[in-house]
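Why show two proteins at once? Because comparison is the fastest way to build intuition. When a single record is shown, students tend to memorize it. When two are placed side by side, the eye starts asking what differs. So, the first record is below.
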Amino acid sequence: MIAQGGMGHETAASGKEIFIIAGEASGDMHAAGLCREIAKKRPDIHISGVGGPAMEASGVKLLFSSSSLAVVGVFEVLRHAAPIMRAFRSVIKWLKKQRPALLILVDYPDFNLLVASRAKRMGIPVFYYISPQLWAWREGRVRKIRALVDRMAVILPFEKEFYKKHGMDVAYVGHPLLDSVRPPESRSEFLDMAGIPAESRLVGLLPGSRRGEIERFAGVMFEAARRVKERIPDTCFVIPVAPGIGSETRGLIEKALVDRIPEKWRPAFRLVHNRTHEAIAASEIILAASGTVTLEAGIIGTPMVVIYSVSPLTYHLGRHLIKVKYCSLVNLVAGREIVPEILQNEITPERLADELVSRLEDPATLEETRKALGQLIPLLGGGGASERAASEALLLLEEQESR
């Protein structure tokens, strides 16, 4: 079973304890799949951790929610330093008291590598699932990972070779999205549920799941959508609200919608809950903040325009250090530009509207993009990533148990 108790639940007598940390929404989802597979293989193990609703739904006992950790960029992290350090102290206190048999870290390197360094001093073995994007920048961190991590499972095909070049033998387990992304069979059922006319040209708007992303992107996306609506009047827009987005964050989306969209057009904009994959599949094209959702859309086969922006200071630092050509996972996995990426100051309502309209008015380009996206799935390693990752984690645990 997966534990349901708190810091005081009885672990020593009733089974092994694992602690897992996932710092943001995509990590929460992948960590939940991993934990379910561990529970199948080792029902004696109790799992506690830091994460979100997906982990909690899988049975993990959360020490606290990861929502306070979900920030992006060096200077963004600095602005949120106080809650992050409180979270760090809580985790270290828990590790000292419970002494789990294994610590599992999922992505989120700024926080997780700090925890790993303390766990190493306590003699707690560390399993890292989903590599930080060291291949994009901060390549020097490989040395730190090599010193602190006992075993690593990676999910992108080029990562194994990257770590091999740096003297680390990591396990490539494939991408867990292949097990969780299920394109729906019926577009008409989704449109009917959302109240969208069947004859509409549908565009998906996905400003991200973090508060900072929504503050940066929702307004400019809605401004762009207004311009698209002016040029293609039968266009409708769907805004999927991800699981775990609280009422305050949803309120930011709703306020941006009211501020930017004339009242006469608001019925053409639909917020839907917990239907992200259905919304993506029903859309002719989506406008999305760079992140895991772009790979979800790629697996579903929906064309997209991707935007990415961080604070000017973070961008100024990063542009001298970034070692990859693309920011979206779709283009990174493909090794070429399948979908357009709009960055930083180029993210204007006019530019985004032009990108969307040019594609909506060119069916051949949309079809060419769909065909290119269809070639991603074989590159992502097939299904079963969570099960393979669980086997790797338990192999490390069993090695420790046999000593």
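Second record. Ask yourself what differs from the first in the token line.
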Amino acid sequence: MKHSKIVLAITFVIIASVLSACSTSSTQNFHDLSVDASGENMPMGTDGMVTGLADGSATGNFTVNENFKEICYSIMTKRMTGMTEAHIQVTASEEDVVVFDIANMNMMNESCMNVDSNILMDMVEQPNKYSLMVHTEAFPDGAVMGSLK
């Protein structure tokens, strides 16, 4: 009888430890953002070049972790080749705030990177203030663009 009480007490301690660990990890702030970018209705480039790959598109899913100053991303492109740059910018000023490593960029890219926590918090609070833009060799001023949501 004593043995079963000890086993029961140990079981409760283990369960309590697991629940405590789960509740501790849930205090981290995770926020999901997404974007559907296209080449339609893009503005004229600053140098007067036509922008926007009419049938190109990109979808992005972003998970922001404010505690670790990190953004994890998955970007999928369609009908785009020769990518030269991908970034999140402040739409109004065109200031790049998150620049993705596209050295090996193809149709699907996933990774995580550190970003200034002030930028991440602002992105979460005002997502449509920011846009994802992807540039290609054929469209150096921008092939596709879309606002975060």
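One difference worth noting in the second protein: The chain has a mean pLDDT of 78.
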